[in-house]
Amino acid sequence: MDTTDPHxxxxxxxxxxxxxxxxxxxxxxxxNLSPDAKIKALDQLVKxxxxxxxxxxxxxxxGVSGGVDSTYVAFMAKKNGLRPLAVHFDNGWNSxxxxxxxxxxxxxxxxxxxxxxxxxxxxxxxxxxxxxxxTPDSEIPTDHGIFSLLFQVARKEGLRYILAGTNAATESxxxxxxxxxxxDWKYIQSVQRLFGTVRLTTFPHRTLWSDxxxxxxLRIQWVHFLDFFEYNKxxxxxxxxxxxxxxxxxxxxxxxxxxxxxQGYILPKKFGIDKRKAHLSSIIMSGQxxxxxxxxxxxxxxxxxxxxxxxxxxxxxxxxxxxQAFDEIMAAxxxxxxxxxxxxKSWYFRWLTRxxxxxxxxxxDRYC
Length: 368
Description:
The chain is an alpha/beta fold.
């Protein structure tokens, strides 16, 4: 990590605040448990999930994207005797490789799939709004849609557990200045009102109040499931390749064409942000790679020039832009999340957060 995060702070020994925060997260997650303690904690969690799911078609919900994290969650859920319902948020940007990975996984494991296909014109307009807003947050619509859909499906099925691929081992570091507002529907709406041309009528979302209702009253829990295993990303990829001929797709979240182009082209070119610095730093913190290896990887371009040009042409056409309009978006001065209305600026957000934290402690599993 370096000063491309404008808020980074280094101590006297040159250690940044991201490393300190990552150390705390790793230490206080299930990832830090001893092998025996992990087995015990996982066994307790699985028993709770099975008890809560008695008499229902499924006992938990998982999201699937075709990526290594979500695919490994599916394998580990079935291996531990759970009955997950797989949920896929189809935003129109799936690569053929991602679709093939999903099909192979669910067929092999015998897992049912629910797919939500976005209204393309509505979603395209929302993505364009975020590009025009000129913040480094253009992946937020997809992230918010995925998270909201998982909670909505869990609520509909009467389930309390969402087993997620989010994990401490590979995702302990990400600067707020690089991406912020994933759970902030007010922020998303404000961007759409300023730059969009259509109303968001079908897009899955969560307000501050509906999120509190589902988490506090319905007790739906987001479980960092991979933390309960000795999760090594490189080993997981090899395992999946062997078991189902799963195919790797390059960078983190590059199973999506838009994500690949945004992280590999727009972020570095317009904002000077290389998210690989955060991704690789997280893996260094969990001991899965050395700093020297990570620096060697950073010497390579985030996206090779041929693929970058192919993706650029494809994205411009799919979004209905002209070359000139895209160039204008790239040339617009960068802006920040802080410049737009959001829940985070309201007094009731801070009030509700205090209630949420005090209430959750009585019924939430420790590592969820």
